[in-house]
Amino acid sequence: RSIEDGVTSISDYAFDGCTDLTSVTIGSGVTTIGDYAFLGCNNASLTSITIPASVTSIGQDAFESCTYLATVTFASGSLLTSISPSAFTCTGLTTIEIPAKVTTIGSSAFYHCTSLATVTFADGSLLETIDFGAFYQCTNLSSITLPNGMKTIDVTAFSDCTSLTSITIPASVTNIGMNAFDGCNNLGTVTLNSNPYIGIGAFDNIKAGATVTMNLTANSADEKYWMTFYNENYNFQADANTQVFKAALSDTKVSLTELATDKIVNKDNAVLLKSTASPIVMTLTSTNSENVFTGNDLNGVSDPAGKTDDGYMYVLNYTAANGVGFYKLATGSKLGVGKAYLSYSGGGASNFFGLDDDGTTGIDKI
Questions:
Q1: 275 with 225: CB under 8 angstroms?
Q2: Bridge partners of residue 365, in order along the sequence
Q3: For residue 237, how far is the Cα from the chain centroid?
Q4: 218-259 residue pLDDT tens
Q5: Whole-angstrom Cα distance, residue 326 to residue 340?
Q6: CA angle 146-167-50, nearest 5°?
Q7: Residue 361 has pLDDT above 50, yes or no
Q8: d(Cα 27, Cα 50) in Å, to the nearest integer?
Q9: Residue 286, SS3?
């Protein structure tokens, strides 16, 4: 079927259930492909299709159950900005390159594409969100390199991708949803380049003995590296170069206590980290710490969107003039997920609680 001659839109259900359709040619003037446009076109001869650069929208379930469709090519300069929910569910795709202008891959977009082995992203990708279940049960998916700039990997996004062996999460990602990689039973290496929110079950049922590590860039000062750390749902253990501290706030004085027993930070506990090297590496562990976290006044940020200053937030920072300490956060500013802060509303508070680094024994008001 050739769709040309001034046609600008393929309407909803246009070829729904056309099981005798053996080929499709879409003209360069088409801008939209409607919902369910080619749903169930599962003829054995319909194995490939090219989407012209003019197409800006592909509708929900547009190619669902085109079971022999192995190749979808997006023309150079594609204007497509999103892939709608279930657009390619249960197709025979073996590989796909996502156009650069796509910002969202919709829910279940490639659900149960069991032949899909490789997903790549065009240079300059603007992708921000992989929605829930987008690649759920893509059991042949062995390789995917997520683009920088991504923010969200949603619930069950890669669940049951049983051929996936490793994945690197860009530093821009702030949210990994519940069960995002659940059931990826060959996933042996997960590298996080930030401290995102990690939903419950995100890494359940991955490969036995798998490592999930965070490489965290810390503030540098006097040949030492400092940062705060918090994770709501998982325990993480600091590397050998790193010390872990809790902080007790009394009036205008902050006292630090090192948690040195095992360097494990139990979930839902905020801490201060000091290291001799950067990045600071935190490794997910199922073991609970033997350290005592009571008497700790550090508060953690769990919202992927961060926490906006409420007028009483002091955050870890460094300036050449004052050194490392807790500085009053500017009005209206935001502290990102995975970080920690002190809250102080008492009288006589300064804009800066300095850190006495003689053995790192305390923080005092300057």
A1: yes
A2: 353
A3: 20
A4: 877 667 889 999 999 999 999 999 999 999 887 667 788 999
A5: 10
A6: 40
A7: no
A8: 10
A9: coil
Tell me the two tokens of residue 110.
Answer: 């490639």
2 versus 220: which is more confidently predicted? 220
User: Would you state the structure tokens that stand for residue 275, as one six-digit string?
Assistant: 């290291």
Write down the pTM of the prediction. Answer: 0.91
Cis peptide before 279 (omega within 30 of 0): yes
Amino acid making up residue 250: S
Token pair of 315 as six digits: 């955050």
Strand-pairing partners, residue 72, are 49
Would you state the structure tokens that stand for residue 359, as one six-digit string?
A: 């053995």
Asked if 338 contacts 267 with a C-beta cutoff of 8 angstroms, the reply is no
**DSSP letter for each residue of 294-353:** TT---EE---TT-EE--S-EEEEEEETTTEEEEEEPPTT-EE-TT-EEEE--STT--SEE
In the numeric block, which tokens belong to residue 202?
Answer: 């995100």
- Whole-number Å distance between alpha carbons of 184 and 207: 7
In b/e form, how buried is each residue of 280-310, taking b as 16+ CB within 10 angstroms?
Answer: bbbebbeeebebebeebbbbbbbebebbebe
Strand 253-258 relative to strand 242-250: parallel, antiparallel, unpaired? antiparallel
Q: What are 103-128's pLDDT values in tens digits?
A: 999 999 999 999 999 999 999 999 99
CA dist 140 → 14, 47, 188, 358 (Å): 31, 18, 16, 55
Alpha carbon of residue 159 to chain centroid: 14
209: exposed, middle or buried (Cβ count in 10 Å: 0-12, 13-18, 19+):
exposed
Amino acid at the residue 68 = Y
Given 3-state DSSP classes, what are the helix, strand and coil percentages for the chain, each rounded to the nearest 5? Answer: 0, 35, 65
